Automatic annotation (TrEMBL):
<dbReference type="InterPro" id="IPR039422">
    <property type="entry name" value="MarR/SlyA-like"/>
</dbReference>
<feature type="domain" description="HTH marR-type">
    <location>
        <begin position="1"/>
        <end position="148"/>
    </location>
</feature>
<dbReference type="InterPro" id="IPR036390">
    <property type="entry name" value="WH_DNA-bd_sf"/>
</dbReference>
<dbReference type="InterPro" id="IPR000835">
    <property type="entry name" value="HTH_MarR-typ"/>
</dbReference>
<dbReference type="InterPro" id="IPR036388">
    <property type="entry name" value="WH-like_DNA-bd_sf"/>
</dbReference>
<dbReference type="Pfam" id="PF12802">
    <property type="entry name" value="MarR_2"/>
</dbReference>
<protein>
    <submittedName>
        <fullName>MarR family winged helix-turn-helix transcriptional regulator</fullName>
    </submittedName>
</protein>
């Protein structure tokens, strides 16, 4: 069997970065497979639904583009696909005539709830069940720091 580097042979910052990349890739692939199998819903579509579900009001399309990890053109394509499935609606913005706002339909809310349960069940054994509240809080703090730094550079 080929030898792998032990963690002690890799500088801490490098191992932390590798772990971040590994976790993001592996967990995203796992969730994507589960969502597609159970709901015919790619993880990129789920991400848009997640942001819409977390907002009590319709969300301007531009805000979705700024909030997700998708490009604005990807968000537009995802919203088109979700709209064609009857999961979201687009309405002209009441604040900006050049903009549209996106919101979940009742069918979209129902699918999101089911897909979110699938996501949580999929991640439980390999993520949330393995970490305690302190671990999750520490990860959340790290993500906030990294994201705040990125947003400060924009």
């Amino acid at each position: 069997m080929p030898k792998k580097l032990a963690q002690k042979e890799m500088p801490t910052a490098d191992h932390a970065f590798y772990g971040l990349v590994w976790a993001g890739t592996v967990l995203t692939q796992r969730v994507d497979r589960a969502l597609i199998k159970a709901h015919d819903l790619p993880v990129s579509w789920f991400e848009v639904l997640l942001w819409l579900a977390s907002s009590p009001d319709p969300v301007p399309a531009s805000v979705l583009g700024n909030s997700t990890m998708l490009s604005r053109s990807q968000v537009s394509r995802v919203v088109d696909a979700l709209q064609s499935r009857g999961l979201v609606t687009r309405t002209p913005s009441s604040h900006d005539a050049r903009s549209v706002e996106v919101s979940l339909t009742p069918a979209g809310r129902q699918l999101f709830d089911a897909a979110d349960a699938t996501r949580r069940a999929c991640l439980g054994p390999v993520f949330t069940d393995l970490l305690d509240e302190g671990d999750l809080a520490a990860l959340s703090t790290v993500w906030h720091k990294l994201k705040a730094d990125k947003e400060a550079q924009v």
